[in-house]
Design goal:
The complex is a heterodimer of chains A (602) and B (315). Chain A has 602 residues and is of the alpha+beta class. In chain A, 48% of the residues lie in helices and 19% in strands. By secondary structure, chain B is an alpha/beta fold. Chain B has two domains: 170 residues, D-Maltodextrin-Binding Protein, domain 2; 108 residues, D-Maltodextrin-Binding Protein, domain 2 (3-Layer(aba) Sandwich), CATH 3.40.190. Helix content of chain B is 37%, strand content 22%. In chain B, the strands form three sheets. In chain B, strands 2-1-3-13-4-14 form a six-stranded mixed sheet, sandwiched between helices. Chain B has a six-stranded mixed sheet with strand order 8-9-7-10-6-11, with helices on both faces. Classes of the chains: A alpha+beta (602), B alpha/beta (315).
Chain lengths: 602, 315
């Protein structure tokens, strides 16, 4: 690290690395392999050829020596040096012959085939002399690229000396140069062919890659990538197939995501997805519209700014624990205009089970409309109370006075009219009372005064209250059963109200002169008061709606239709508040039984 | 390899050429300036290898002819004959103008009616003269030529001056009777000196060294080289007189002006580069010069020895 400035530039990493494409690298690599292989092969071929040549040359040298020795025998025997010189001159001129000498039995050189014959009389090597004195075989001595072959020359029993031929093993000049030329030519052809083949192969291999690259680029630009051709069944073909599969999946995912976006944007509730820290990641259209803020402004901000903390929680997200969702949280959504819109919120952690949440999904429903309707209902009820009930009471009082003869004896025709007015006023009063009761129950504003009472007393009271009404239709109310000491904890007035409703219906639907049975019983801890009539029964199709508000089965009878349709709904709400239940059994044409069940207090 | 041999067909061609060549170069008209004179100078050579001889002699003949324009010579040619007698005939007929050879054949031609006249000495192979040695194994007991009686001596080639002719003259001059044999192992009568031809100077030395013959003869100049480290195993029994290495003979009747011009050109050859190059190519001739004792005298000396070997030259 001492002096980086003195490092020669070529050693630093600052230089751009020479870049070869995959194709270039492929060609370079394969060429290198091929050339290396070719070089090794050529070297091997040359080696083999050289060895073959060397062997051949060795054989030739032996043959030539034997021939020379045979031809020289007579001349050596007769010491015809001129003849010997002539013979050796011819041998000397043979290719690859480096030297040839004839020597006598003492090992002294006779001639080397030249006129000058500078080694005349000189002794040949000791080894050669010894060999010649004792053997008739060839003696081979290698001196580098030259072999010296000695053949003892023997005529009959006479050892005349020998012939030594020095022969080059480096190859016949023609042979070797021809072989080298041939090898080089073959090598060059081989190299260029393999280079061509490599280039073609590289193009074939990289073509699909280039196609994939182009298709991927197209995809990333958002263009539709046409399916790649799958030409082969090999890895390259597999790549193309895999790519096609990927684009198909990607397209499917994109489509389903688009669908999801559409769904989320169409849903009425506000959807807000946040990170763990509450940073908003995405919102749907409803959320943007309710908040009056563009999506871009919402995404990235914290959801704390959008939602107030629900009552009793530090923040909205605190309300949802790490692994469970929170439902029905009432809070407010802060709009851009500064309004706080009441919302009902569900918060669910975004997590695969057993993992830390990656964020939260918040779904908020706008409550302002519902609250407005509630408010309007309340306003209506208040209006009914003040503007209908009070005047109605006055009207009924006045009619009562009229029928009571305060304004003198009424003629019979007038009496009849006053009676009609009185009936309708009472009916209207009932209707108003029912409406007010129903609203009170709905809004949870009905007060209940719970007392422990003996239900039989209440049953009797209810029967008495209805007796007059039943009498009008010639219907008898028969009280049956006995509950003994059984007590229930109820608001007695409300229970009587329920029993009145049920009894009134039974009377109303009973045939004239019929009987309504009021039967009380206890089974275990449940007290049951059953009211049975022999009326037409409740039509099958209407049974589901008996407890709905303002619901009345239309069977064509005026008397039957005279109700408000609120009785059963009020009764059901009261029974729930009392901790009991109301239900019925009915057979068309045979009659109906309503059951009022209560838990026994003892 | 084919160089050494000469096919019969080629010999026929050469013979035909000789037959057609007609007379030598008579008195030639002066050559017109710029054109080559028509006169031809013919050089004769004695050899069994006419092809090789042509190759060696022709450049010399051309060189010479090119410088004889003033005396009407424009062309040089070479005539090769196989025997001394043939040469005598060619010279006598005027078909050969110059005959350059060893002293014995030149002397023989002169003695046998060719009317040959010696002009100069030729330093063939760089030597002005040569002589022969007669040698025997040092342990042979042969100390004088007389000790060779009843023994066999090896000579070189039958036409060789130093290998045969000169040593033989020495033996005969010493009063010994010589007899030729084919077989070196033949029995030689006690009053004779038997001889065989080894046909090779190297063989002669080996024969003596290895006792195949009792003695041998050869050119003194090559003796040391031939014997090498074994020189001590030999004893020199006799040395012959020296003879000029080569003689240049001119035919009788050659134009004296041409003759004089030839002598001038040959003597001057060693003085110019072209001349020296031609000399070197012509069997390593060092120079041509006049014979120290005079041409007549020199020829007489050779002729004096020739009597002992005349029959060997075909006489
Ligand atoms: N005992 C009964 N027999 C036949 N129908 C009955 C009987 N009790 C109730 N219903 C049916 O249930 C409807 C609802 O009863 P209720 O809520 O008391 O309204 P209302 O008595 O004012 O009609 C009645 O209109 C009637 O159609
Ligand atoms: Mg009713």
């Amino acid at each position: 690290m001492g002096e980086p400035a003195r490092v020669p530039r070529s050693w630093s990493t600052g230089w751009p690395r020479p870049r070869l494409g995959l194709r270039g690298r492929f060609i370079a690599f394969v060429s290198a392999v091929v050339i290396a292989f070719g070089a090794v092969l050529t070297a091997f071929a040359v080696k083999v050829q050289n060895e073959r040549l060397r062997h051949e040359l060795e054989e030739r040298s032996k043959l030539l020596t034997v021939v020379a020795a045979a031809n020289a025998t007579d001349a050596m025997a007769l010491l015809e040096i001129g003849e010997l010189r002539q013979l050796f001159l011819e041998i000397r001129q043979q290719e690859n012959v480096v030297d040839v000498v004839a020597f006598d039995e003492d090992g002294r050189i006779l001639t080397d085939g030249t006129l000058k014959n500078p080694r005349r009389h000189q002794l040949v090597a000791e080894g050669v002399r010894r060999h010649t004195a004792s053997s008739d075989a060839l003696l081979l001595e290698f001196r580098g690229a030259v072999v010296e072959v000695t053949k003892p020359v023997i005529l009959g029993a006479r050892r005349l000396g020998g012939v030594t031929l020095s022969y080059s093993l480096t190859g016949l000049a023609e042979d070797q140069s021809a072989f080298t030329r041939r090898t080089m030519l073959v090598g060059a052809v081989f190299a260029s062919l393999s280079l061509l083949a490599t280039a073609l192969l590289a193009a074939a291999v990289t073509r699909p890659l280039r196609e994939v690259t182009a298709a991927t680029r197209a995809l990333s630009r958002g263009e539709a990538a046409p399916p790649l051709p799958v030409r082969t069944t090999d890895e390259v073909g597999e790549l193309a197939a895999a790519f096609n599969e990927m684009t198909a999946r990607l397209r499917a995912t994109t489509v389903s995501r688009d669908e999801l976006d559409l769904i989320l944007d169409t849903m009425g509730e506000c959807l807000v997805v946040t990170g763990v820290d509450g940073t908003i990641r995405r919102v749907n259209k409803a959320a943007c519209e309710l908040a009056g803020v563009a999506e871009e402004a919402l995404v990235g901000s914290n959801c704390r700014r959008l939602f107030r903390a629900p009552a009793g929680s530090q923040s909205l997200l605190h309300a949802a624990t790490a692994d469970a969702m929170a439902h029905g949280l009432e809070t407010a959504l802060q709009t851009a205009a500064g309004e706080a819109v009441p919302v009902l919120v569900s918060v669910a952690p975004l997590a695969t089970p057993g993992e830390q949440p990656r964020g939260y999904v918040i779904v908020a429903a706008d409550l302002s409309e519902r609250l407005r309707v509630e408010r309007q209902k309340d306003e209506f009820v208040t209006m009914v109370h003040h503007e209908v009930r009070a005047p109605l009471t006055a009207v009924r009082g006045a009619i009562g006075l009229l029928s009571g003869g305060v304004a003198g004896q009424l003629p019979d025709s007038a009496k009849e009219l006053v009676a009609i007015a009185q009936r309708n006023a009472e009916r209207m009063e009932r209707l108003v009372a029912d409406i007010l009761t129903a609203r009170k129950l709905d809004a949870g504003r009905m007060d209940f005064q719970f007392l422990e009472v003996e239900p039989m007393a209440l049953v009797r009271q209810a029967a008495e209250a209805c007796a007059a009404y039943a009498g009008k239709y010639g219907v008898h109310i028969v009280i049956e059963g006995d509950l003994g000491e059984t007590r229930v904890r109820v608001d007695p007035d409300r229970l009587i109200q329920v029993l009145n409703n049920v009894l009134a219906n039974a009377v109303r639907f009973s045939p004239p002169g019929g009987t309504v049975n009021l039967h009380s019983s206890r089974t275990g801890s449940t007290v049951r008061i059953a009211v049975t009539d022999a009326g037409p029964g409740i039509p099958e199709s209407f049974r589901d709606r008996v407890f709905e508000k303002f619901a009345r089965a239309d069977d064509g009878s005026w008397r039957h239709r005279s109700g408000t349709g609120l009785g059963m709904s009020i009764s059901k709400a009261i029974m729930e508040e009392l901790g009991g239940a109301i239900s019925f059994e009915s057979a068309v044409g045979a009659g109906t039984t309503f059951f009022v069940d209560l838990p026994a207090a003892n | 390899m084919a160089r050494g041999r000469w096919s019969p067909a080629v010999l026929v061609v050469v013979a035909a050429e000789l037959a057609c060549s007609g007379g030598g170069s008579g008195p030639a008209p002066p050559a017109p300036a710029g054109a080559r004179p028509a006169g031809v100078l013919t050089i004769g050579a004695l050899s069994l290898s006419p092809g090789r001889e042509h190759e060696v002699v022709q450049p010399f003949a051309d060189y010479l002819a090119a410088r004889l324009g003033e005396v009407g010579i424009g062309h040089g040619r070479v005539v090769v004959v196989e025997s001394v007698h043939g040469m005598v005939e060619e010279l006598a007929a005027g078909r050969v103008d110059l005959y350059i050879d060893s002293p014995f054949p030149v002397a023989f031609a002169a003695e046998h009616g060719s009317g040959l006249k010696v002009l100069l000495r030729r330093w063939k192979h760089g030597a002005e003269s040569y002589r022969s040695l007669i040698f025997a194994r040092a342990d042979s007991g042969i100390e004088t030529l007389a000790d060779l009686r009843g023994r066999m001596i090896a000579f070189g080639e039958p036409f060789s001056t130093t290998g045969y002719l000169l040593p033989k003259t020495a033996l005969v001059a010493a009063g010994l009777q010589v007899a030729g044999y084919q077989d070196p192992a033949a029995a030689v009568p006690p009053d004779r000196v038997g001889y065989v031809f080894s046909n090779d100077a190297e063989s002669t030395v080996f024969w003596v060294l290895k006792g195949k013959v009792s003695a041998g003869a050869g050119n003194e100049d090559y003796f040391a080289e031939m014997t090498g480290e074994r020189i001590d195993e030999l004893r020199i029994v006799a040395r012959t007189p020296s003879l000029p290495r080569n003689l240049v003979g001119a035919r009788r009747g050659l134009d004296p002006a041409v003759e004089a011009a030839i002598v001038d050109v040959l003597l001057a050859m060693e003085d110019d580069e072209k001349g020296r190059a031609v000399l070197a190519a012509y069997e390593e001739t060092a120079r041509f010069d006049r014979l120290p004792q005079g041409e007549e005298e020199a020829l007489a000396e050779v002729a004096g020895l020739l009597q002992f070997v005349a029959e060997d030259l075909g006489g």
